[in-house]
Amino acid sequence: MKEYFEEIKQKLKKNINLENIEIIDNSHKHQKHKFFSANRFHLKLIIKSQYLNSISRLSAQKKIMKILEKDLKKKIHAIEIKIEK
């Protein structure tokens, strides 16, 4: 799991200028949900990036989602994105 989260960090850092990124696994909070799968993560990304703060929130989230597009189809069920100033 730690290796996979590091992989996500590297994908984002490679494509976006980030000062900091923290990944929180909230999968345990969703275990009783109807479509819960232990093979897919519920993640919260806390990102500090001057670049992402310089564009609209929607554009920033679309950029992140595009980078993680394949992961969202296979390994990530839900993602919450918080962009800090």
Beta-strand share of residues: 25-35%
Cα-atom radius of gyration: 13 Å
Would you count the extended β strands for me?
3
- Helix content class: 40-55%
Sequence of secondary-structure elements: HEEHHHE
Shape, per Cα inertia axes: globular
The total of helices stands at 4
Decide which structural class fits the backbone: alpha+beta
Main sheet summary: 3 strands, mixed
Give the oligomeric state. Answer: single chain
Nearest-integer average pLDDT: 90
What is the CA–CA distance across the termini? Answer: 28 Å
Strand order of the largest sheet: 1-2-3
Low-pLDDT segments: none
Keywords, separated by commas or semicolons:
alpha+beta; 4 helices; 85 residues
What features would you describe in this structure?
There is one protein chain. Helices cover 42% and strands 27% of the residues. It is globular, with a radius of gyration of 13 Å. The protein has 85 residues and is of the alpha+beta class. It has a three-stranded mixed β-sheet. The longest helix has 14 residues, at 2-15. It contains four helices and three strands. The mean pLDDT is 90.
Q: How would you summarize this macromolecular structure in one to three sentences?
A:
The protein has helices spanning 2-15, 50-54, 57-67, 69-74; strands spanning 20-25, 41-48, 76-84. By secondary structure, it is of the alpha+beta class. It has a 3-stranded mixed β-sheet with strand order 1-2-3.
